[in-house]
Amino acid sequence: MLSAEGLRHTFGEGRGQVVALDDVSFTLTSGQTLAIFGPNGAGKTTLLKVLAGLIRPQAGSVRIAGGRRAIGWIGHETHLYEHLTVRENLLFWASLYGMPAPRRGPRAAEVLGRLGLGDRADRPVWSLSRGLAQRASIAKALIHDPSVLLLDEPFTGLDLAAAAELRVLLGELRGRGAGGGGRVLVLATHNVDEGVELATDVAFQRRGRFVHLAPLGGRGPSEIAEAYRRAVEQRTGGVTDG
Amino acid sequence: MGEVLAQAWAVARKDLVLEFRTRTALVSAVVFAALVLTVFNFGRDPTAVPTIDLAPTILWVTFTFAAMLAMNRAFQLELENQALEGLLASPLSRTGLYWGKLVANLVFVAVVEAVGLPLFVLFFDVPVGRVLAPLVGVIALATLGFVAVGTLFSALVMRTRFAELLLVVILLPFLVPPLIGAVQVTARLFGGRPLSESVGYLKLLAAYDIVFVSLASFLFRFTVDE
Ligand SMILES: Nc1ncnc2c1ncn2[C@@H]1O[C@H](COP(=O)(O)OP(=O)(O)OP(=O)(O)O)[C@@H](O)[C@H]1O
Ligand SMILES: [Mg+2]
Fold first, then answer.
1. Which residues have a Cβ under 8 Å from the Cβ of A10 and sit 6 or more positions away?
2. ipTM of the complex
3. How far apart are CA B175 and CA B153, in angstroms?
4. Are A162 and A131 in contact (CB under 8 A)?
5. Ligand 1 centre from A46 Cα, in Å?
6. If you take atom 16 of ligand 1, which residue's CA is the nearest one?
7. Could you tell me if B91 and A98 are in contact, meaning their C-beta atoms sit under 8 angstroms apart?
8. Is A78 in the pocket of ligand 1 (CB under 6 A)?
9. How far is A156 from chain B (nearest CA, A)?
10. Which of A86, A153, A168, B186 is surrounded by the fewest CB atoms within 10 Å?
11. Could you tell me the pTM of the whole model?
12. Which helix H or strand E contains A28, and what residues bound it?
């Protein structure tokens, strides 16, 4: 379970102030996937960082069943150490989550296999391509089997096959959670086509505000894309929010 | 507590693996120490000031600046791919992170000192053999204190533009007490005086260690959290 209540956060002061989050509230239970669509600068990353506990919001609160330990976060950056191998990175992160030493190796191998990195596991991260590093970053976020997954543009840098595989993987993760129930996924992206397939709920974010928050219902990608364009992109000036 | 220690060990181990694989900070610190000692060696005039009077100061100036080079690395490496963000979002406790960095820094500085000390003995021809055990003890005592403070400050300055410079500037005033203590004790040891004459300074060093390790462990969270 993940719930956000009245989140507000701004950057800067005076005339240069940017409202990155403006009264954002929602509740998700296991099995639900919220896709947040918004243009560059809408505040998607800020929202995910607040949910991940990295930014303390100026107002509002976040509640996550299981706390920090329950969160898997895939950010814009990979959070990987370039001079460690992919496997070493995973083992390190597993240890931070208090996973018993004998379980770390098998778990890392399992996750690496799932992300198609089995044969590259022992290569240093610096030798990986952008897309492979992104996959390693996803593997890292899954190592402790989180029940809440926060995904910030997770498809960045992935080729078509890898993106399709990731969609399948996320679909499976959503359905089968740690305790048999499903997981909660929050996926932020500026590309409607990338997330809508996975979503049970959609939100359109603009200038920190959710201008639309609703269950997906029976609506398909094209309907969502159309609604998104109407809600967010019909505006004067600028291509970005902020 | 057990969990904090386990996390600290995970962080320290990771840093040690990274450093011994890339060796960037360590090599520059060791080279720096060797260079400084060489310059002092050829720059001194033994007829003007007896070597034995200058030696303790030279030893500690060299150790201090070499240690700063090594300590700067601690948090800089966490900025790569924003790994620090990942750490802060994980269940890693802030104290665990600090202790992990402290242990890794202590190992690095110990390596620098382990290379620096023989060079020092070689160049300055001081009678270290008889006082090796107490000398190592004093080095350890002083090093713990200033690495504890240095680790805290390197977290404080990591996101600033002139991190290396800033670290030196804000750290030096805090290093004055342990450095005075360390130089005084070292001078007495080289002069063949018994350790009992240095009790006051040893107490100062021990008190500094206790105060600053505890204080830094507590204050660290305010440096990394927004
Ligand atoms: N640390 C910061 N300091 C100042 N301003 C910030 C900071 N982080 C974000 N902002 C501003 O807050 C606004 C929201 O940024 P955010 O990164 O959350 O947007 P986003 O929706 O993730 O955009 P993108 O699609 O480009 O990733 C932007 O105007 C951004 O410039
Ligand atoms: Mg973003």
1. A17, A18, A19, A20, A21, A58
2. 0.88
3. 12
4. yes
5. 6
6. A43
7. yes
8. no
9. 15
10. A168
11. 0.91
12. strand A18-28
